[in-house]
Write a structure and sequence with these properties.
The complex is a heterodimer. By secondary structure, chain A is mainly α. Helices cover 62% and strands 0% of the residues of chain A. The N and C termini of chain B lie far apart (36 Å). The chains are: A mainly alpha, B alpha+beta.
Chain lengths: 938, 143
């Protein structure tokens, strides 16, 4: 279809400058334009690389030719290939006296080089020279280059000249000099800290372009230090007022809106200045109110300004009237049919909800519509809003929705974000532990590889600590439900590693606790896990430790342990593992199986993961033993430090247990288990408070494969075994010692930050769940917003806004025309005038978007184009009549007809000539990629 | 920082103009452009003209076969950027007359010159078409 439309269409080639380009260049562009695949394009570019490499070495290349080569280099890089072989030629071209060539050279250099490239040094000199030029365009070109190429080191080389140029008589130079200073400020604030007053000065520049540009650096400065600029509040307000009163030249108008981009920048600055400042906010309120009244909400640009006003109001301390106006604007956005406006509305809602929490309620149905919209962007924005308005009454609905969405997307970046939001909300507002575990399971199952490892530890801790204080029954229920859910999930293929770690841990701790599942059943499952994820050593380690716990509990309770054959073979395999960690675990397990019930119970007491382990660093409990040994003739121990007199070595010697080595050597791993032997069940310990030790060991667990990784659980119980495998003197003693009991229970000394805070919260409240899985929107609305709404509400509201929309469209044209006469006499430089008035009759955007619709649909689009040719006045400045009629013509035949009403008569003619020229050169519109010739605005 | 990059890419995913306001290596650019184009192409005209991509927000607008895509920071006013794109197209149209994809290809440097006038340091600094085009016209005259 597209081809049909374009075949025979005239080439509307550039009207400017003629075709200086060579046939070769035209051919290159043509072939790139016609390339049908990336591979084809790559081939073209690669052969172009070869050609240019040769050409550039030729002697005496004419300048024009050279310029063309440079552009071809730009093409090569733009299409993703390396053109570094030609950089030097671009650098050379910046030296040229000819302005066009110089500027092309600068352009290429800024595209090719980053600010730290070695070649830049060759350009600084040229820049310095150009800054002194009499031709202001040369100065501008140099300033452009400065904004891209000058880094911290080279700032001093050009700074004095740039400062001088701030007073240049040409406004274009002043503007660019300001931006150069802006760049310096970004690169190295200290280099221009003595010059910031210049930005204030330029704010009063009598050229609006300079003033507008100055707002950019001022915005940066003010965001860094609001208080130093409070005196400018009234200046900004007055500038904004003047802009809205159309005091700027008309050439800054955009779609009848006076200097909208300057207005937006001003509003951004005002938001900064008015934040938390009642006084400043009051000064602004007048002009903001005016903006709300004046802004034409039928154009995109008008809405852009309205949206910026909403943002501003959400930052400052607004009066109730402004809030109301903002709320009104938001509701208009939300009621619009345009997704863009809905998006802005949702965003605005999210901002305003901070100051007036009730505002969301009246828009609940619109919000839900957006949430259910297939448009991903809108959906995400809505989730952001929901995230902001989550409270304990609606957390279940919101998090459920988020999780469903999380499951449905593939984008890891966003998945991570939404997963962490789910976790955050669940931790903050969870109505019950049960629910929390469910949510965590889902998060782990579907995004386990993306969430922070702390989350896993939180979950384990929650399951271990349960509801806390008195409700043991509920605790075991919770654990059973966790175990059950894991047994269900465990056979799912490809679970994330982190989740498997949690599962293994919980199964090890509580798998058999309830008596519902047999040890062999659980251990079989654990073997399956170790087997299925045999490449994941962490998971295997967790699984083996879990097995050990299961067997320990069995032995301790006096039952006979039958090690399943698969477990046996797993253990044997791990005994020979390359991972010393796994090997150690396997040996420990093997050793444990040989111990008697009493010993095992001491090593791994039941459900003792939360017990605090007190470590007697001084090993005072050994005193008696040592005393005995010395008495029987042993040499007293002399520490390494004392022996050698060297400090450094000490840390490397395990014997020196008075200091936990800070080095990350293996020794640490051996020491870790020491704190564990936890006592809850047995009762003869001498605890020494040692909180920091605990936390120290707690952290690294997860992150590495080192054997300490599992310390959170295992640390508690390995010691008994450890004495056999660890360093004898040290380990054995710990084991013996740590059988010391004390009221360690319940006193939590963990300093692991994230864990503590989160696990305590969900515990606090258990609210009965509301049934919320009702598919109906109003139900959803009710659960989200807490308000009630009915179907009829919905209908009336949507019925209400459709007509409103229609009228909005109609009225759109009216006020515009009203406005035109009010405009001040056109200022110089306004080229857009003649057509602007005709364009007022229609919203150019509506038209354009309509066109875009039509061109995107493949079937029957030519007819649609025909239709649109009636409604042609599309752009303000250019008539598109010609294009559209050309389009419809072309669909009928290949002949060209002049369109008398085109405002671009001469251009069309010119285009025709160029067409002929281009055809001669071999660029033919009938070729493979006809869309090349399609007018962008058409 | 505001605007992080401006891309013009056609429906086939071929880059027609690329201007980055922060440094990315060739490979990064290639990958980024590919991902963005795929995302935008998958969307229909009723959907928002905004897409989130990594830590960028892409505001895009389609004219005939050509997508104009502007990568911005999260706190940028999307609607304003959308209109900025249109201003750019209008400006090019004013200069080239009935601007089409091929105009940009044949006059790549001029399209860049216009952008150089409009955007510096990732900020919109000039929005008057007359001011944007006057240096280019002067250069044309001189040749």
């Amino acid at each position: 279809m597209e081809q049909l439309k374009t075949i025979g269409r005239e080439l509307a080639m550039g009207s400017q400058g003629g075709f200086g380009q060579s046939k070769e260049f035209l051919d290159l562009v043509k072939s790139i334009g016609e390339a049908r695949s990336k591979a084809e394009e790559d081939r073209i570019v690669l052969s172009e690389v070869d050609i240019l490499k040769r050409r550039l070495l030729e002697p005496d290349i004419p300048k024009r030719k050279m310029k063309e080569y440079i552009i071809r280099l730009v093409y090569i890089e733009m299409l993703g290939h390396d053109a570094s072989f030609g950089y030097i030629y671009a650098v050379k071209m910046t030296h040229d006296d000819n302005l066009l060539l110089k500027r092309t050279g600068y352009l290429a250099v800024t595209l090719f080089l980053n600010e730290d490239h070695d070649l830049i040094i060759l350009i600084v000199n040229t820049i310095q020279k150009d800054l002194r030029s009499d031709n202001y365009l040369v100065v501008c070109a140099a300033l452009n280059a400065i904004c891209r190429l000058i880094n911290e080191e080279t700032i001093p080389a050009v700074l004095p000249q740039v400062v001088e140029l701030l007073n240049h008589q040409k406004e274009a130079v002043r503007k660019k000099a300001i931006m150069a200073l802006h760049r310096f400020h970004r690169k190295s604030p200290s280099s221009v800290s003595h010059l910031v007053s210049n930005f204030r000065k330029r704010l009063c520049d009598n050229d609006p372009g300079v003033m507008g540009a100055t707002l950019c650096p001022l915005f940066d400065l003010i965001s860094e230090d609001v208080n130093s600029y409070k005196d400018l509040v009234s200046s900004f307000v007055s500038i904004l007022k003047q802009v809205t009163e159309r005091r700027l030249p008309k050439s800054y108008d955009y779609h009848q809106m006076p200097a909208p981009f300057i207005q937006i920048k001003l509003l951004k600055i005002m938001a900064l200045l008015g934040s938390g400042d009642k006084n400043a906010s009051d000064i602004m309120s007048m002009v903001l109110g005016d903006l709300f009244r004046k802004c034409d909400s039928s154009t995109n640009i008008g809405n852009a300004i309205l949206y910026e006003c909403i943002r501003c109001i959400s930052c400052i301390l607004p009066n109730p009237k402004l809030l109301e106006a903002a709320a009104d604007a938001i509701s208009k956005f939300l009621k619009s049919d345009s997704h863009n406006l809905k998006y802005m509305g949702i965003d605005g809602l999210g901002r305003l909800i901070k100051i007036s929490p009730d505002i969301a309620e009246q828009h609940q149905l619109a919000v839900i519509d957006c949430l259910e919209d297939p448009d991903d962007t809108l959906k995400r924005k809505t989730f952001e809003l929901l995230y902001k308005m989550t409270k304990s009454s609606n957390v279940e609905v919101i998090v459920d929705r988020m999780i469903d969405y999380m499951i449905s997307i593939n984008d890891n970046h966003y998945k991570t974000e939404i997963a962490s939001r789910c976790v955050e909300l669940a931790e903050q507002f969870a109505p019950s532990n049960q629910w929390f575990i469910q949510i965590m399971n889902k998060v782990f199952e579907h995004a386990g590889d993306l969430v922070n490892i702390k989350v896993a530890h939180n979950l384990m801790r929650l399951i271990a600590e349960g509801f806390g204080e008195d409700d043991d029954d509920a605790d075991s229920k919770l654990r059973l439900s966790a175990v059950e859910s894991y047994l269900q999930l465990i056979s799912e293929p490809k679970l994330p590693s982190l989740f498997l770690q949690v599962i293994s841990w919980v199964l090890g701790e509580y798998g058999t606790a309830d008596g519902k599942y047999s040890a062999s059943y659980i251990s079989g499952k654990l073997c399956d896990v170790a087997d299925a994820y045999s490449s994941d050593e962490t998971v295997k380690g967790y699984a083996v430790s879990a097995l050990m716990k299961i067997y320990a509990f069995e032995i301790a309770s006096g039952r006979k342990v039958d090690v399943l054959p698969e477990c046996q073979s797993l253990i044997e395999e791990l005994l020979a593992s390359h991972s010393t960690d796994l090997q150690q675990r396997a040996y420990e397990l093997q050793a444990l199986l040989a111990l008697d019930a009493r010993a095992v119970e001491t090593i791994l007491p039941l459900d003792a993961s939360c017990e605090d382990i007190e470590v007697d660093k001084d090993l005072s409990f050994l005193n008696g033993y040592i005393q005995q040994a010395i008495e029987s003739g042993a040499q007293p121990y002399i520490s390494e430090r004392e022996r050698s007199g060297m400090f450094e070595t000490t840390d490397y010697h395990p014997q020196d247990h008075h200091e936990v080595p800070t080095h990350a050597l293996r020794f640490e791993a051996y020491e870790l288990p020491k704190p564990s032997v936890p006592p809850q069940a047995s009762n003869e310990l001498v605890p020494v408070p040692e909180p920091s030790y605990y936390s120290e060991s707690h952290q690294p667990i997860s992150t590495s494969l080192v054997s300490e990784r599992e310390s959170s659980e295992i640390k508690l119980r390995l010691d008994g075994v450890k004495q056999k495998w660890g360093r004898p003197s040290y380990q054995s003693t710990t084991a013996a010692s740590s059988t010391t009991p004390q009221a360690a229970n319940g006193i939590s000394t963990h300093s692991d930050a994230g864990v503590g805070s989160s696990s305590s919260k969900p515990r606090s409240s258990y609210e009965p769940k509301k049934p919320e899985i009702d598919p109906e929107k109003q139900r959803l609305a009710a659960s989200l917003f807490g308000g009630s709404s009915s179907r009829t509400d919905k209908r009336s509201s949507s019925g209400g806004h459709k007509p409103a929309k229609g009228t909005a469209n109609k009225t759109a044209t009216v006020p515009k025309e009203n406005q035109t006469p009010v405009q001040p006499p056109p200022d110089l430089l306004d080229f857009g005038e003649p057509t602007a008035t005709t364009a007022t009759a229609m919203d150019p955007f509506k038209e354009l978007e309509g066109l875009m619709d039509s061109s995107s649909q493949d079937g029957g689009s030519s007819d649609v184009m025909g239709l649109y040719s009636d409604a042609a006045p599309v752009t303000t400045t250019t008539s598109v009549d010609s294009l559209l009629s050309e389009l419809s013509d072309s669909s009928k035949g290949n002949s060209r007809t002049y369109q008398p009403q085109t405002s671009k008569g001469p251009n069309t003619k010119e285009a025709l000539e160029k067409d002929a020229l281009v055809r001669q050169m071999g660029v033919n519109p009938t070729s493979q990629n006809p869309t090349l010739f399609k007018d962008l605005l058409g | 920082m505001g605007i992080r990059f401006i891309l013009m890419v056609n429906k086939q995913g071929q880059t027609r103009l690329a201007q980055y306001y922060e440094w990315l290596t060739l490979e990064e650019r290639r990958a980024l452009e590919g991902e963005i184009v795929r995302k935008c192409l998958a969307r229909n005209d009723q959907q928002c003209s905004f897409v989130e991509h990594r830590n960028y927000k892409i505001v895009y607008r389609r004219y005939a076969s050509l997508f104009f895509m502007v990568g911005v920071d999260d706190d940028e006013n999307e609607l304003a950027i959308l209109e900025f794109i249109h201003l750019l197209v209008e400006t090019m149209d004013k200069h080239f007359g009935n601007v089409c994809e091929l105009d940009i290809m044949f006059h790549l440097e001029k399209a860049h010159f216009m952008l150089e006038e409009m955007v510096m340091n990732g900020c919109i600094v000039e929005t008057s078409k007359a001011n944007i085009l006057s240096p280019i016209q002067l250069m044309d005259k001189a040749h």
